Amino acid sequence: MHLSDDDLHDYAGGELSPRRMAEAAAHLEACDACRAAAAPLMALTARLAALPRAGDTAADLWPALHTRLAEEERSAQVPVARVISLDERRTRRMMPAWAAHAAAAAVVFTLGFGGGRLSGTGDAAAMLVAADTVATAVEAAARVQRAGTEYVAAVAQFVAFARGGDSLAAARGRQATLAACYGASRELTRLRADDTSAVRLFRTAATALHGPAHAAPPPPPVF
Amino acid sequence: MTATAPPEPALLDAPAAAPRDPAAFEALYRAHYRHVYAVTLRMTCDVSRAEDLTQEVFVRVWQKLPTFRGDSALSTWIHTVAVRTTLQNMRSESRREARVTTTDDPARYAAEARRAMPETAVDLERAIAALPSGARSVLLLHDVNGYRYHEIAEMLGVSLGTVKSQLNRARRLMMEALER
Predict the structure, then answer these.
(1) Which one of A16, A73, A134 would you mutate to disrupt binding with B, by most B Cβ within 10 Å of its Cβ?
(2) pLDDT tens digits, residue range A141-153?
(3) What residue in A sits closest to B76 (Cα-Cα)?
(4) Among all residues of chain B, which has the CA nearest to that of A146?
(5) Would you call B37 and A55 a contact, using CB atoms and an 8 Å cutoff?
(6) Residue A89's pLDDT is what?
(7) DSSP string covering chain B, please?
(8) How confident is the model at residue A129, as a pLDDT?
């Protein structure tokens, strides 16, 4: 039996399962009629796949784009006040010391590792210059940011467990927090020791927790 | 265990709101704009629209970069933003014009394609430009950009069967045009 028109298209586009691809190839090998029907299709898809995928604009678009981005940035900087509910204020007052410390640690890591997002968006120009390619820097920043997010989630989970008064759950939560902390730190230490953006992240975090007097960068963590 | 929600870190969104540096973004733009322009130019077959869309794509990249999690390569992510932005623009444009568009002048487009991509096959570019826009999009997404049927169906919001029939039709029209 000959291959259907749909089969020929699926075969030419590589959309058949591996088993069906092998069967179709064997059939085409043996069947002159199907091979003749498939030939122009195969030639077309091969030529389309070989078309260049990059092209130059007639004029440089960057100056106009730069202006648009500056406008975007100005409109994004309008401050938004956050209303804190009465319940939330009450919760904050009643937060025990250990929970406050955990929340403070979360803030530090959010600042520190969340800073990866800044690197990705261009704030840490130094990091972009130091990296081999722009793509490498942005992808590295995204990994750091993800590690930071996981750490913050683990801290939040730990706080929830501890509040529940279940010491076993709290111990497990603490373990998860430490594991996330380790992962986040490992990502951060991949940055070069003299990387100015990494130093700035440490300084921002230290300022947030202890004030400007303690803003000198700590030595990199050792594992 | 009580169901009390954990305290939300108050500064979680602070980095996204911080000022960003367009000068650093320029390096990213320079590394990727040629790929984005090729996508927008082929899909619209219209130079000025493709240039506008290229800018629009990078504005979106600028806005969405804080949400990029590194799950795929940055170039893949930018390519997807380019395709989705262009498709969205084409949809709203065709709704506005209430018609299925082919490009006004395939030969003019082919000349621009050769200027932008000197090594391209002009006969193919001309035949692509002469396709109805729906068939052209599916052909470009599948046969040029390498998306699979199911990915195209998701991007266009149509069934798998529609994607296949549009693609088969586009290839048939291409082969007829190339035989002439």
Answers:
(1) A134
(2) 566 666 666 666 6
(3) A135
(4) B69
(5) yes
(6) 53
(7) ---PPPPPPTTTTHHHHS---HHHHHHHHHHHHHHHHHHHHHHH--HHHHHHHHHHHHHHHHHHGGG--SSS-HHHHHHHHHHHHHHHHHHHHHHHHTS----S-HHHHHHHHHHHSTTS-HHHHHHHHTS-HHHHHHHIIIIIT---HHHHHHHHT--HHHHHHHHHHHHHHHHHHHH-
(8) 38
Dihedrals phi, psi of A135, to nearest 5 degrees: -60, -40
pLDDT, average across residues B128-145: 95
Q: Which fold has domain B21-179?
A: Butyryl-CoA Dehydrogenase, subunit A; domain 3 (1.20.140)
- Above 70 in pLDDT, residue B35? yes
Answer yes or no: do A39 and A106 share one domain.
no
Of B27, B62, B139, which is closest to A134 when you measure between CB atoms? B27
Model pLDDT, residue B4: 36
Q: What is the pLDDT of residues A92-151, one digit of tens each?
A: 544 444 444 444 444 444 444 444 443 333 333 344 333 334 455 556 556 666 666 666
Nearest CA in chain B to A13: B143
Domain total of chain A: 2
Instruction: Write down the pLDDT at residue B146.
Output: 94
In angstroms, the CA A119 to CA A127 distance is 7
A80 in a structural domain: no
Quote the CA–CA distance of B69 and B67 in Å, as a whole number.
6
The residue type at A48: L
pLDDT at A103: 46
A174 touches chain B (CB under 8 A): no
* pLDDT tops 90 at residue B83: yes
Residue A140 lies in a domain: yes
Nearest to A103 among B7, B35, B68 (CB): B7
What range does the domain containing A187 cover? 96-214
Of the ranges A97-106, B4-13, B87-96, which is most confident?
B87-96
Task: Test B9 with A110 for CB contact under 8 angstroms.
Answer: yes
Of A33, A48, A63, which one is at a domain's C-terminal end?
A48
Is A13 in CB contact (< 8 Å) with chain B? yes
Residues 64-123, chain A: which have Cβ within 8 Å of B? Answer: 64-66, 68-70, 72-73, 76-77, 91-92, 95, 99, 103, 106-107, 110-111, 114-115, 117-118, 120-123
A115 and A33 share one domain: no
ipTM for the assembly: 0.84
Confidence (pLDDT) at B2: 36
Assess whether A100 and A184 both reside in one domain.
Answer: yes
